Amino acid sequence: MAAIHDIKCTNPDCGHESYDALVIPDRLPFCLCGSAMEIRWDISQRVAPVTIPSTVHPREQAVVWHNERTGSVAYPPMNNVPMPERYSANGYERKELNTLAKLDKFCKDKNVTNEKTTYNSGNGV
Ligand SMILES: [Zn+2]
Q1: Which regions of the chain are under pLDDT 50?
Q2: Distance of CA 3 from the midpoint of ligand 1 (Å)
Q3: Which of 68, 70, 95, 122 has the smallest number of Cβ neighbours within 10 A?
Q4: Which pLDDT score is estimated for 99?
Q5: What distance in Å separates the CA atoms of residue 101 and residue 110, rounded to the nearest whole number?
């Protein structure tokens, strides 16, 4: 029965590896170098390539300056801009919307739209 395995060439001079190959375990394919391939049981515990928690990359993160007392929000031109004195002196605090849930809630509460999450970024998909 076919299964998905990580396989590698048994020739140490070749070392070719193939990840997530669909193989029949007792009829493994041969490497392009002509040597037999074997299942890599040593990395069977490998984790999925994406191990980043479901947060937004800091570069992509939405940031607002929020005044807890008045409920006012100011939108910095970029997420890495230091807050001007006039905002911090009036009680504004930096608020990072670092999950999609926080961003969605903020947009709904303030009746605004996040361009990045709402519209196509121009990648043609
Ligand atoms: Zn090989």
Answers
A1: 52
A2: 21
A3: 122
A4: 82
A5: 14
In the block, residue with structure tokens 């993160």: 61
Predicted pLDDT of residue 48: 57
Residue 124 located in a structural domain: no
pLDDT at 50: 54
Flag whether 101 is in a domain: yes
* 37 is a domain residue: yes
CA distance 36 to 70: 70
**How many A from CA of 27 to the centre of ligand 1?**
16
Look at residue 88 in the predicted model and tell me its pLDDT: 93
Domain range holding 82?
A: 62-115
The total of other beta-carbon atoms located within 10 Å of residue 30's CB is 11
Is residue 93 a contact partner of residue 66, using CB atoms and an 8 Å limit? Answer: yes
Residue 33 CA to ligand 1 center (angstroms) comes to 4
Give pLDDT, residue 101: 85
> Residue 3: beta bridge partners?
23
Distance 70 CA to ligand 1 centre (A): 67
Rounded to two decimals, the pTM is: 0.51
Residue 49: inside a domain: no
